[in-house]
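User: Predict the complex with flavin-adenine dinucleotide.
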Amino acid sequence: MSNILLYAEVTRENFLHTVLFELAYKAQELAQKLDKAEVSAFLICKTGLAAEYKEAFINSAFDNVYIAEDDSLENYSTELYSKIALDIIKEVKPDIILVGATTQGRDLAPRISSSLHTGLTADCTGLDINEKGQLAATRPTFGGKLMATILCKTLPQMATVRPKVFKPAPENIVKDTKFVYFKPDIENIKTKVEFVEFVKGMNTCINELDSAQIIVAGGRGMKNEAGFELLKNFAESIGGCVGASRGAVEMGLAPVDIQIGQTGKTVTPKLYIACGISGAIQHIVGMQESDKIIAINNDEKAPIFEVCDCGYVGDVFEVLPRLINEFKAE
Ligand SMILES: Cc1cc2nc3c(=O)[nH]c(=O)nc-3n(C[C@H](O)[C@H](O)[C@H](O)COP(=O)(O)OP(=O)(O)OC[C@H]3O[C@@H](n4cnc5c(N)ncnc54)[C@H](O)[C@@H]3O)c2cc1C
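Assistant: Here is the predicted structure with flavin-adenine dinucleotide placed in the model:
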């Protein structure tokens, strides 16, 4: 029997990261293409926390959940978490391991794959099972100009997927989930890294970009700091979060944490307003699933106009002040 194992990441606010539910629904689809595959998750957290998530696992069609709890596991530690993950994997022997491409997942997954001498396809945008029953993991390559489907020759086959690439199940799929507790074997591990303090980013919106309903993103066309200040005022006037293209990040106008696109975040807000962004494919892949896209650009031939629902050909420095006044007046 094949097994698919998912990493259940716990956020700093002690929630299960939403990428787990996106992967769970996709894993169900993959499991149907494999003969009697089970979909399981592994959870590493501080003592007592797992009980809070049981219902979420049951409602997300997991067959098994492997839990390792300990007070020393409150904060993510590469060394402790990867040791426990490897112990669980050796016991469960999954054929496929899926991990969210979050900051934590991007640290944990390569540690696991290198220890197991297996392959890992990072930042996938598509997952499927081919006619031979192998995981076919698709991701952009050559700077986003080509999509490559990658097969792994060794087991387990591993992939990371960014949040918001897949959709969660539209409704609960209830299963008779089995919960299996693992005693973490970490007493003798001397970690080289000590957790001191968690410092939140300066821009509070950064952490909310993933779940923002409205995003106002600026590109090189915003030109300078004053331009980005204007963009922030506009975002504030409509209750949106600020995002940026890599062009703007490279100009030093925005921090890399709010970069949207292939090498930044993937976002799916209800409304995405692109200001002074040309619409390079590497940017588009990070925002194209937004419900409605509005573009403001002074070049009518800018590629962003091909993906937007509504476009305005004009100068952002004329349009945005007018919009701010309109929204503030309302
Ligand atoms: C491997 C790789 C990964 C990448 N990853 C990303 C990524 O994650 N995210 C990303 O965004 N990019 C990424 N890029 C870069 C991408 O290819 C583009 O270079 C980048 O998106 C361009 O940013 P931009 O649209 O802000 O700048 P530009 O392409 O320079 O566009 C600026 C736009 O502003 C318009 N403009 C200028 N002045 C005004 C004005 N006054 N009013 C209105 N419009 C105006 C111009 O007409 C132009 O269309 C990546 C590239 C590579 C090779």
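The chain has nine helices and 15 strands.
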